Amino acid sequence: MRLLTAKMFGFISSEKGTLSLTPLGARVCNPQQEKAARVESFLLVPLYKAIYDDYKGQMLPGNPGLEAAMEKLGVAPKQKDKARQVFQRSATQSGYFAYGTSRLVAPTMKATTEEEKPKNAEGGSEDEDKKENKPEKKKRHPFIEGLLDKLPEEETEWTLEGRKKWLQTASNIFDLMYTAPDSEGELSVTLAKTSAK
Fold first, then answer.
1. Residues 28, 49: one domain?
2. How far apart are CA 66 and CA 178, in angstroms?
């Protein structure tokens, strides 16, 4: 079972009865690269990738709803409870639940470790030179990034119902991230149908 799990996450490969460690498997064994390798391996499982894509930037449903979504994606009804529990453990271990178990947020990882960064003539990191010459751009919160990723391309069709859903999601994210001094009241998004003349 452990070997099957390791293969499912892309850590090992098998050919003619011989098991081999994949490059991803070698990275997960390296303490400096383990975190990034876990993040990458999570999305190699087709079921987890499908759920991540379906709920990117949105709240996950509760356990019954998550199990129903898994069943729609092909999980056997008798296995959906176990599949959901394994999914939640995997998401926790790989860092996708860093902001709570109600959302899947891909952790942001450095492209290279300190040892791998190219050095300048004085032996310092080239990144240090760039920091001295350029002001560092502030990164957006993953929730905001996920929300912006859901925007369709310009000049494409976008239904009013789709716009309403996006704006409701934005409102929920703002409620989580910001405090409102005028907290008396509620922000709602409604779709008003115009009457035909």
1. no
2. 28
